Amino acid sequence: MENLTVKVNGVEVSVPKGTTVLEAAHIAGIEIPTLCYMKEINEIGACRICVTEVNEGRGFRLVAACVYPCSNNMEILTSTPKVIESRKRTLELILSTHDRKCLSCVRSGNCELQKLAKDYGIEDASVYDGAKNEYEIDNSAAHMYRDNNKCILCRRCVAVCSKVQGIGVIGANERGFKTYIGSAFDMGLGETSCVSCGQCIAVCPVGAISEKDYTKPVLEAIANPDKTVLVQTAPAVRAALGECFGLPIGTNVEGKMVAALRRLGFDKVFDTDFSADLTIMEEANEFIDRVKNGGVLPMITSCSPGWVKYCEHYFPDMTENLSTCKSPQQMFGAMAKTYYAEKMGLDPKDIVMVSIMPCTAKKYEIGRDDQSAAGVPDVDYALTTRELGRMIERAGINFNALPDEKFDEPLGISTGAGVIFGATGGVMEAALRTAVYTLTGENVIDLPEVRGTEGIKEATYKVGDLDVKVAVASGLANAKELLEKVQNGEADYQFIEIMGCPGGCVNGGGQPQQPMNIRNFVDIRAERAKVLYDIDASMPIRQSHENPAIKEVYETYLGEPGSHKAHEILHTSYVKRKVNNV
Amino acid sequence: MNSAKSTVPFKGTPEQEAQLLKVIEEKKNSKGALMPILQKAQEIYGYLPIEVQAIISDKTGIPLEKIYGVVTFYAQFSLYPKGEYTISVCLGTACYVKGSGDIYDKLQEKLGIKGGECTPDGKFSLEACRCIGACGLAPVLTVNEDVYGRLTVDDVDRIIEKYA
Amino acid sequence: MKTLEELKVVRDSMKGEVALRTHGDASSKYERHVLVCGGTGCTSSGSPKIIEKLEEEFAAKGLTDKIQIVKTGCFGLCERGPIMIVYPEGSFYSRVNVDEIPRIVDEHLINGEPVKEFLYEETVEGDTIKSLDDTSFYKKQHRVALRNCGVINPENINEYIGRDGYAALGKVLTSMTPEDVIQTILDSGLRGRGGGGFPTGMKWKLARNIVPDADMKYVCCNADEGDPGAFMDRSVLEGDPHVVLEAMTIAGYAIGAKQGYIYVRAEYPIAVERLNIAIAQAREAGMLGQNIFGTDFSFDIDLRLGAGAFVCGEETALMTSIEGNRGEPRPRPPFPAEKGLFQKPTILNNVETYANIPQIILNGSEWFASMGTEKSKGTKVFALGGKIKNTGLVEVPMGTTLREVIEEIGGGIPNGKKFKAAQTGGPSGGCISPENFDIPIDYDNLIGIGSMMGSGGLIVMDEDNCMVDIAKFFLEFTVDESCGKCTPCRIGTKRMYEILDKITKGNGTLEDIDKLEQLCYHIKSNSLCGLGQTAPNPVLSTLRYFRDEYIAHVVDKRCPAGVCKHLLRFEIVKDKCIGCGMCAKQCPASAISRTDYIAPGKKLAAMEIDANKCIKCGACIESCKFKAIIKK
Prior knowledge:
- The structure holds 3 protein chains of 3 kinds.
- Helix content of chain A is 34%, strand content 14%.
- Chain A is α/β, with parallel strands linked by helices.
- Chain A has 3 domains: 3-79, Ubiquitin-like (UB roll) (Roll); 98-211, Alpha-Beta Plaits (2-Layer Sandwich); 215-570, Rossmann fold.
- In chain A, a hairpin with a 2-residue loop joins strand 15 (456-463) and strand 16 (466-474).
- In chain A, helix 8 (272-293) packs across helix 10 (328-344) and helix 8 crosses helix 14 (426-440).
- Chain A is globular, with a radius of gyration of 25 Å.
- Chain B folds into 2 domains: 14-73; 85-163, 3-Layer(aba) Sandwich (Glutaredoxin), CATH 3.40.30.
- Helix content of chain B is 45%, strand content 11%.
- In chain B, helix 1 (14-27) packs antiparallel against helix 2 and helix 1 packs parallel to helix 3 (50-60).
- Chain B is elongated, with a radius of gyration of 19 Å.
- Chain C is α/β, with parallel strands linked by helices.
- In chain C, helix 11 (241-255) packs across helix 14 (351-363), helix 18 (467-481) runs antiparallel to helix 19 and helix 19 (487-504) packs antiparallel against helix 20 (510-526).
- The B-C interface holds B 31-36, 38-39, 62, 66, 69-70, 73-77, 92-95, 97-98, 135-136, 138-139 and C 266, 304-309, 321-328, 342, 483, 565, 586, 588-589, 615, 617-619, 622-623.
């Protein structure tokens, strides 16, 4: 490809054609600040924080570095007085409409606007104060709230919702100074076909969108001597929790996480990986059953509640394709309040089941119908990775100094198949490991075709005399593309894995927020997924059906995969919904 | 919430809906069809309530929010029907100090609607306006072309009755 | 029509007809043509009733076959509407009243004696009747873009053809390569008439070449004229819609496009209707559609209606709007020539730019380049408005001075008031002070003095206009019309407006002026699109030329022009007051009471105004028949 030579602050660098000023500066070791820009997702040049001086032979002028392409021999100056003054003034204008309640803001210390205000030495945040729009906080959704008083109209949430997830339940309404982000007719998010994926939260630079925080009732439950408080942690949490404590992206903190949960006072620290293995047993069985007995194909995974809700709203005709298996979170809760309660002689009503999830849709999922195996909700509180981070910090636990500890037994015993659930393709790989073994007795472990962060992956596996065509999609716009192919008869897969969030749970809406100037240059999906595949590779057992705790569960309690009892406890049902609930 | 939904019950007829569906069918495959569809829809219904926007969303696959974002961007589109009579109360300084705010409040109470809305029977829309240059008559309101001046709160009933 | 010959047949049959109206070799089947303006201005002042009455009279008096009634587009002198011209004499009847029609019919149309008392007074000098072209309003004008406006019936394609319409398209398709066409436009020096003044030929060249393998390209016409007080484009669309269609088709041939879109304001119903008629007629005549003039070139045009957003005049916003989105601009590059409408190479020109194209093709680039200044060729249409005698539409060669336009063509400032400023370019332009009165108008000169050409609104202000108030007016407009996408424009213009509001209310400080100026420069250099980048111009230019007025508001708490209400004081001149008490009755704030003082020769005690209670509404001044109340 053709290369261009540009000078960044006098230093010559060679960049490929098509490189933006922002990227050229990055290559030269200069970080230009951004607020609205998300590479390939939100290239709108709207916030104007990234303005930079460039000269293309006709004198220096300000351009938006994020979207302005380099030209040959371009001179770029990133920190002239004019640049600094311009960025500062734009910041001051943003601050004049921003609800500057930093001390009580969930993002304090982790806010991109706050950091810029510090970096650019804002002396008086109120210098341009004037009229402000006042907004009601939208609390209508189960998983999150939106506070437009803090919104800076960068539109990252809008871009993610419509472009990445293909949903578009939030967007810009009105115009000019009255512009705000909201839903059609100012409906609460809870009334729309929002799928609760939380990707908007993950990209919000400020505290305008956040998950609903349930740390307080969890602490109260722990303090209540009449309650047994169990906690389960999803695979992807261990791959990202360290980021809350300044550890590099892609650090495995499983042991420290377990230690921290114990120190927070949970009675038992269990692992959702266990119920991921259980999910595989049920799902592989269901798949084989559908293939053998002419059931609805392709069968599609149902672990991701954001995806499930999406399917119900946008592809209601395909809810029969969804596996009836509950998600691992729900299977875990169901087993805890039936099997484990019986085993330990506990009344399910006295068990408080807390889950730590990389996901905000899990907050919605715990309230779904047909998710109460013991007559009480399977899971009581679903906390995000971020909420756990806050609990640990608040408790004064020096996370980085914690020893590595192990999960409690028996519901903390798991396999490598369970842990890769957290990455796109992981459920497929884990399911195939067991399905292939069940059908042929062969042990097939590594399936590289379904790994990696591409949005849509396809593969065909020879299983006995069967050609099994599978597909994997993550991110709902990709899911949509894939499903439309299925509906149009352009593809005849038998088994599809879909995860609501791009890259799977490692990049879930409940994971620690990384500022966009990191995300634009680092693929956090791949970095975090690597943690899970490394764990898998290091595990002595890597097939769900080999998990001794799972074997015991079936032998002593459930009987066979797909048994009547398994169905009562571990399976669920779906609802056909509409896109517009008008 | 739902604050932007119209106070006037939707009274679309099957004929109107058939017309709208025909328009959508004609246009939906042409590029950039949304604006022409919305313009026709407003011609058919007089305004673009949620019921109409939802039909357009369902039939074109364009998210309802995107449609709403477009509708609220352009001044020409209206979310509310216009009443047969538009009552404009001058809230310019002269009228305001002579109590037009009270008259405006009284009208909202009497008609059971907020400014910018239309009564459920489609009879009256209410709006506040800037100075209409009749300060000597303050406080002033207009009903379509008719001007009423030197008003007191007690005059409101009489004026409404004239048009009811 | 499939060939040039067929076009020529139609032209020849119509040429004599329309020539009756232009002092050419006339050979009309009618004795006379009565042209009635059907533009928006004259329509609202009653021209449809005039036509109705004429038809009625003609029917009654047997003139229907002898005299043709032609509903035209705008004549330009909107101030004098409704307008009616009788040819071949060229008698110009202004402010025509329906009741006058029978007399005009009897005395003029039947007996051949123009009714002098109803004629535009400028055309009557004693016993002689001057030609319209000799009046001061028309004398200095030179009509290229407007050449057919007020001459032809815009709803009849044959009249357009009679004026050499579609001949340029024929020439282009049958004897020129696309490169020839682009070179001709380049050589003519034509620059975009919509605002920025980018060379039109350059735009076309880029669109032709930049993406060599593009499968689709588009030609767009910006008819979303939104400046308050500007109506140049509307007049062309209403008076000569085919010229736009022809020019767009030529552009399509030049860049290699098959589809055109005209984005026109929905607020221009007459223009929309005439465009629809014109498109249908052009398709019918084979001037749009498949294989035009029997060549393998095909082109069609669709209308898209704007929906009330000023920002859609910005090129990327206009395209975003046609695509069915909120009309928000997007960053450039990529420029539309590379990625425009639906991500395809696109050119966008405004109506007036297109209106010049066929004439350039027919008369050659040298002809066009012979008009105007060194860097601004041709003519420019202005919509004259504000404090000026002849409001209306004028077309003058580039390089005409502001003084010529305002004093000679515009007839100067009415009521003996003093000229204070001229505003060009609408909310994007600036105010020009009297010291620049003699600068020749062209793109670069206007930018040099802090304004811009814009699309051609020219608003004249006199001593009674407050420049701070004017700046505030434009900022209010910008705030209302900002799309809200980028920070500097969305929040910055609002803050500018708030500061201006504070100043006009007497609460401003000198620091506020500094803050305002800083914001101006910030918004200018940091905004995403042209709307934001030019939004501060009205403030910057008034700060530059009329800073003393800002200072007076801030330091002396005084509005020199007597406009800003909060800074006014109303006083009763006691010796003039007869004590009738009318003012007190009108006062909405009960601020007027009776004094003990009885002026000499008066019977009742004089009134006085309590400044603390006064809300400065002016009701008392209007009520006082004795001019005893003054504001200062």
